[in-house]
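Example: Ig-like domain-containing protein.
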Amino acid sequence: MEKEQVDLKFRLYNIIFDKKKRHNIFQKFKSQHFIFKFIQTYNQETDIVFIFTVFNIIFVSVFDFKLLCRFNSSDLKDIEYVYSEYYNRVEFLRFSSRVDWYTGYTEFGLREANIANNDTDRLTRRRMMKQHYCLQHVHMWYKNALNRTMTPEAVLTSTAPSGGSQRLFTCSTFGFFPRSISISWTINQQPHTSEVSSTDTLPDGDWLYQAHSQLSYSPRFRDRVSCWVEHAALRDALEVPWEPVSHGDRNKIAIGISGSVLGLVLALSGVLYYCKRRKGESGLVPVNSEL
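Written out as structure tokens, the predicted fold is:
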């Protein structure tokens, strides 16, 4: 077995530098069954990685594999190890530590998943990869990212749809990390859950995220509508109240009222001055020049 492994590995390595050999065996390597049997010859993880690298150099998109570590919190309790195999960019076999089992996605993949799930040694080695591949390296690779937090920015807006009595309130949060966030609503300080819809948390670029929540509601006079944002970067929940008149509109109204009052005062002063002058002129006695 060891001699066969060395021989196959040596032949594969030399294929990279020999176009004639590469052309002659291309049809043979296109066989899914041959590739899988070839990989089974190598039961060492390091050898498999080497072989897959050579496959990718020689036959782009014929056969490929991926190793993933998925997690969304720094304690890594929810970390998931995923191993996937692809043929012509189509995934046919996957192992997930969350399912703890191989799953096939094609006819060939179903057969191989059945073989793998009945191979105790192979299944045990794959299960151990969560510890060896993910848990041992994630802290080192993502130490800075895991400890990083960014406070969300939140904005509450509202629109009145034409022909409807309900207003649509939208609470938007931007630029936060980590990904997990909670947006809730209150009306007059009481929790409100009906007529509420939310989007999934979406990437905002540079490891940051955004999320949105909407509320349909017909506000009454003096109703206090607020959205509340809870996030790991916030010490306390952030309240974002709805202001029927925005600060900008309030400033415009204040300036308009001030201008109107000033104009009214000036106009009144002008009228008083004019009336006083008319009264003074009517009280004068003309002087006779002949006297």
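The chain has a mean pLDDT of 74.
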